[in-house]
């Protein structure tokens, strides 16, 4: 299906994919999975396309279900279209919405849209519509104790704002990758490129932002194979990260393990991991634990100058700060944010590749001024950084390149 037209440089347009789902009493459901970003200029095209799908559902006697889990930006535009759609469907089956983001759930709740029903998951919608009683234990974790159980908590909204900021930083790179693939393979629109990128991301379990960054920075292919002569690399021996039966191909699992190991070694109550995104040459927050929302907001705003991890990256050596309040290498804003959120000591350990360049930083936070890791802890944290570097290099040269090869084959076959 053709995606709505988008302007050059704009975020990935909203794409609607439909499929029939059985399970509702005496009828099925037409599941409309939506992904991409909805900006003001794309509202009319999206509204027209949505109405076409809804008419198809009505003609087939199917209950329309909108999966909005991957809709980015454009909250007001989405709400306006849903409001108009609900009014136009008076006397027809309610519009079912599943997996909407917290901000959109709150907006729909406050707007009191008649004919629109919210559910956490498709399974929950099917159960309730079928008359099954939903036990409290089955309710999703994001449900709060407010009058309406579908209203998100303020913590949910904070997280969504932070995620939106991160996506806004990633959106230009997605656009660059789409443009690169459109020119390279002669694709008719950016939606075609986005669908292949998303499919490769899901198949190889590589985050989309990591994949598109690789598309942008990798040398272009010159033949049927993107990386000819590449051999299968064995997983490196990892002293710390190799324990516990972890799957080195699972990036999320390994990144979380880096932080867990660091927190355990340093006996720190809080910390975070950031890796360098080569497409924008900036540190990107990968995972965190125990960090205050205010401090996380500070990290994702893109103001790296004056942070401990930025200093450790530029110097390519660890930075120990026994007293945050008096450390001159930190910016005033960074010091103030750390102190007000309860951090008085920290250490940032850079992850250096074989060439000595920094590819990431692990930072540990402590609430007491004067805290310094022991010599044994410092040595173990250095070993963990070496483990992280070895795994990250292997991952980029194997899993990530496999995903790029898949993109190349898929698009070469399509345009052959």
Contiguous low-pLDDT stretches (5 residues minimum) are 1-11, 23-27, 132-152
Number of helices: 12
End-to-end distance: 20 Å
- Order of adjacent strands in the largest pleated sheet: 1-2-3-4-5
Cα-based radius of gyration, to the nearest Å: 24 Å
What are the secondary-structure elements, in order, as H or E? Answer: EEHEHEHEHHHHHEEHHEHEEH
Alpha-beta classification: alpha/beta
Describe this structure in words.
This protein is an alpha/beta fold. Helix content is 45%, strand content 18%. The protein is built from twelve helices and ten strands. A five-stranded mixed sheet has the order 1-2-3-4-5, with helices on both faces. The chain has a five-stranded antiparallel sheet with strand order 7-6-10-9-8, with helices on both faces. Helix 2 packs across helix 3 and helix 5 (154-185) runs parallel beside helix 7. The protein starts with 14 loop residues before the first strand and ends with a helix. The relative contact order is 0.09. Residues 1-11, 23-27 and 132-152 have low confidence and may be disordered.
Provide a brief overview of the structure:
With 416 residues, the chain is an alpha/beta fold. The chain has twelve helices and ten strands.
């Amino acid at each position: 299906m053709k995606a709505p037209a988008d302007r050059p440089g704009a975020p990935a347009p909203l794409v609607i994919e439909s499929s029939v789902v059985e399970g509702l009493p005496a009828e099925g459901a037409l599941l409309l999975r939506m992904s991409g970003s909805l900006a003001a200029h794309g509202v009319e095209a999206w509204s027209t396309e949505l109405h076409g799908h809804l008419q198809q559902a009505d003609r087939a006697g199917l209950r329309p279900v909108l999966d909005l889990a991957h809709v980015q930006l454009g909250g007001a535009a989405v709400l306006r279209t849903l409001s108009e759609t609900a009014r136009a469907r008076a006397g027809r089956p309610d519009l079912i919405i599943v997996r909407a983001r917290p901000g959109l759930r709150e907006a729909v709740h406050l707007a009191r849209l008649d004919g629109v029903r919210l559910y956490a998951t498709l399974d929950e919608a099917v159960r309730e519509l079928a008359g099954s009683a939903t036990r409290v234990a089955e309710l999703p974790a994001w449900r709060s104790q407010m009058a309406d159980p579908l209203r998100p908590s303020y913590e949910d909204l904070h997280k969504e704002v932070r995620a939106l900021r991160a996506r806004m930083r990633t959106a230009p790179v997605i656009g660059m990758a789409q443009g690169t693939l459109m020119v390279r393979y002669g694709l008719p629109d950016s939606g075609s490129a986005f669908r292949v990128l998303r499919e490769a991301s899901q198949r190889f379990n590589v985050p989309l932002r990591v994949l598109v960054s690789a598309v942008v920075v990798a040398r272009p292919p010159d033949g049927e194979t993107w990386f000819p002569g590449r051999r299968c690399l064995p997983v490196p021996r990892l002293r710390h990260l190799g324990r516990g039966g972890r799957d080195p191909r699972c990036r999320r699992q390994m990144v979380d393990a880096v932080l867990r190991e660091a927190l355990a070694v340093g006996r720190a109550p809080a910390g975070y991991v950031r890796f360098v995104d080569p497409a924008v040459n900036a540190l990107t927050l990968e995972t965190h634990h125990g960090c205050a929302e205010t401090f996380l907001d500070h990290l994702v705003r893109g103001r790296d100058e004056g942070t401990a991890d930025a200093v450790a990256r530029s110097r390519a050596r660890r930075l120990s700060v026994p007293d945050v309040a008096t450390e001159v290498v930190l910016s005033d804003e960074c010091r103030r944010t750390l102190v007000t959120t309860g951090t008085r000591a920290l250490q940032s350990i850079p992850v250096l590749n074989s060439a000595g360049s920094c590819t990431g930083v692990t930072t540990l936070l402590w609430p007491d001024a004067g805290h310094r890791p022991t010599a044994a802890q410092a040595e173990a944290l250095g070993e963990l950084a070496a483990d992280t570097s070895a795994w990250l290099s292997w991952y980029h040269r194997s899993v990530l390149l496999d995903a790029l090869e898949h993109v190349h084959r898929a698009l070469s076959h399509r345009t052959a």
